[in-house]
Amino acid sequence: MPPKGIGFTENKKFAAIAERKDGRDVVGIYYAGNDWKMVNSLDVDTADLQDIKWSNGDSTILIWDTPIESRIFIYSVATGDLLYKFEPEIIGLGIKTLTVSPNKYLIAAGMFDGSIILYNNLTN
To answer: Does the domain formed by 6-89 have CATH 3.30.420?
Structure first.
């Protein structure tokens, strides 16, 4: 099982790493070369960041929040802008995992209770 709070791009050149600074979640974007340089830092709107997944040709990252909140955020890696925010209508046991469809329009959230919630980032 891979560690939570860290994700690498498909080509393994960049890493997104969850950090806590002054009681807030921050995601550091690092060039994963020989010297591990930070190239961006994203202030994220999570209560307790659970995990990170790269998406959309490695230009965005998906972040999901504590099981109590079960919110999903999509941020631009280049600008740090929040592009989408999804909040479930029914609070369950929380998000266990996320995956993005090949066409990049659907996000499937696998919940701890065994259910799946589909989100469409075109209509939000």
So the answer is: no
